[in-house]
């Protein structure tokens, strides 16, 4: 026992010693898109709200499909984020958007002095909505379009004073009108209780004239909840769907966490030799479901095919209810736990129905052996499978016991979602994110693996779990371009590729997730601060040389992102961290590519460090000696090279794993 404790202690010590040395000797070049400030809408609009008043809505609403036009003056990054916001509306509501083609009334999106919109359909033909500088956050854009759809700020409700107190003496002079309330005929609650978590609510510091809050919640626990700019809250969606009589999201197809006995209309397939059982635990694993992680008495179900009880060659088929596609492409997302034999397989099919095949025709989409890396796993793993069904279909899971294996165990499924969206492509798992946030020193980054887009650009995410200097209690996130010697085929400076960094809310139902994301776009004309070099030029020219943990070398370009990505308080809310895990979805997309997404998963409670630098004391000792010697040598080399070229350095890159 004491030897194990000593190993664990030494592992943590060496890990943070290495991180300290890396950050002591080397500075990473990063640029904050918003000047390092966590800007809310009222910060961005400071000085102009007196001129840009939202007008009272007309009685008529917009049609469910809203024509829009993006003006040429919009920033490129804003255009991409607007399209992402539209996708969230389509997924979670019946509201859709289409490019304007001559309709009498439409929304014209332009780059004005801030973020603002009229309330409701004004019936003026061209109705303007501004997405100005620093307004290119997805929640800010969704917020402004909610105004256009007919919604006022949450704290403008007639019953506002029952839930919050406005501290009028703390409000900046001339800004008091922003805290007006409106009667039920103007700002209807639509029968929904006051929502502290609404994306339409001001934060507690809105328009403050000093250090004290301007809005005090009457339930103190909600003081730091108001003002969230992540995603629609459940009540935001409830009100919007009530107002527009929505019954289902435009691109949503199905979701199932197996909590109900009808298993969401799924059926056992015909012609198989075994069944998938609805259980709360399985011999050989898993011990709990993924939806609730065993926390809720009387719930926590998942589907399990017991390969331990099955005969060699037995198959078990689980089929979704009938689904009716519109777009011709779908994303199947599910959590999979594999405690079966190493050769047992899980196959994903679609069963498609047409006149020639009234009983359906099976088409294989993907075979999964082991976990996402082909290994057996003792964890629930997130999987994505891209589908391309163009006719009525079912999703079919086929578990097969290929050969004799362990007497217990099997294959388990939970939290299945199907939507007409594009799928992520890469998954990376790092462990115990809560521990990482609490124990990583400030100004100390961890790095994702390298990911390559379909257009051949390689990128990497740098995350400061405890924030950068001056941003304690924040997650700070930056995107870097990467290049290796011998890379060819890319255009430099990298032209107009949008990189999105999303922290996934792991709620079982895809429509109820409030994920947090930020996007940046590579502007080929952008210059590095105080330099004539292009910021997004070839990392071999403007970056630093990095020695990876496997000994390979690559060049890391400067980082672009935000020091105020998300507060620790919000990161610990909802299901951002689940079972110790946090999941980041990253995309890199351009004009001629679909989404390139990767997943960064942080955390398992069983591990006390995320930087797995060694597996034994002997390896740790050797690495410590080698690293100390290497850093001393690198420091000398770095100083020498810095005199000649400030953009070159050799560093040991530490990955979380």
From TrEMBL:
<dbReference type="InterPro" id="IPR013320">
    <property type="entry name" value="ConA-like_dom_sf"/>
</dbReference>
<dbReference type="GO" id="GO:0016020">
    <property type="term" value="C:membrane"/>
</dbReference>
<dbReference type="Pfam" id="PF00629">
    <property type="entry name" value="MAM"/>
</dbReference>
<dbReference type="InterPro" id="IPR001506">
    <property type="entry name" value="Peptidase_M12A"/>
</dbReference>
<dbReference type="Pfam" id="PF01400">
    <property type="entry name" value="Astacin"/>
</dbReference>
<keyword id="KW-0645">Protease</keyword>
<dbReference type="InterPro" id="IPR008974">
    <property type="entry name" value="TRAF-like"/>
</dbReference>
<feature type="active site">
    <location>
        <position position="144"/>
    </location>
</feature>
<keyword id="KW-0812">Transmembrane</keyword>
<feature type="domain" description="Peptidase M12A">
    <location>
        <begin position="46"/>
        <end position="247"/>
    </location>
</feature>
<feature type="transmembrane region" description="Helical">
    <location>
        <begin position="7"/>
        <end position="26"/>
    </location>
</feature>
<feature type="domain" description="MATH">
    <location>
        <begin position="423"/>
        <end position="546"/>
    </location>
</feature>
<dbReference type="Pfam" id="PF22486">
    <property type="entry name" value="MATH_2"/>
</dbReference>
<keyword id="KW-0479">Metal-binding</keyword>
<dbReference type="GO" id="GO:0008270">
    <property type="term" value="F:zinc ion binding"/>
</dbReference>
<feature type="transmembrane region" description="Helical">
    <location>
        <begin position="611"/>
        <end position="634"/>
    </location>
</feature>
<keyword id="KW-0862">Zinc</keyword>
<dbReference type="InterPro" id="IPR024079">
    <property type="entry name" value="MetalloPept_cat_dom_sf"/>
</dbReference>
<dbReference type="InterPro" id="IPR000998">
    <property type="entry name" value="MAM_dom"/>
</dbReference>
<keyword id="KW-1133">Transmembrane helix</keyword>
<keyword id="KW-0472">Membrane</keyword>
<keyword id="KW-0482">Metalloprotease</keyword>
<keyword id="KW-0378">Hydrolase</keyword>
<keyword id="KW-0245">EGF-like domain</keyword>
<feature type="binding site">
    <location>
        <position position="143"/>
    </location>
    <ligand>
        <name>Zn(2+)</name>
    </ligand>
</feature>
<dbReference type="InterPro" id="IPR002083">
    <property type="entry name" value="MATH/TRAF_dom"/>
</dbReference>
<keyword id="KW-1015">Disulfide bond</keyword>
<feature type="binding site">
    <location>
        <position position="147"/>
    </location>
    <ligand>
        <name>Zn(2+)</name>
    </ligand>
</feature>
<feature type="domain" description="MAM">
    <location>
        <begin position="254"/>
        <end position="425"/>
    </location>
</feature>
<protein>
    <recommendedName>
        <fullName>Metalloendopeptidase</fullName>
        <ecNumber>3.4.24.-</ecNumber>
    </recommendedName>
</protein>
<feature type="binding site">
    <location>
        <position position="153"/>
    </location>
    <ligand>
        <name>Zn(2+)</name>
    </ligand>
</feature>
<dbReference type="GO" id="GO:0006508">
    <property type="term" value="P:proteolysis"/>
</dbReference>
<keyword id="KW-0732">Signal</keyword>
<dbReference type="GO" id="GO:0004222">
    <property type="term" value="F:metalloendopeptidase activity"/>
</dbReference>
<keyword id="KW-0325">Glycoprotein</keyword>
<keyword id="KW-0865">Zymogen</keyword>
<dbReference type="InterPro" id="IPR006026">
    <property type="entry name" value="Peptidase_Metallo"/>
</dbReference>
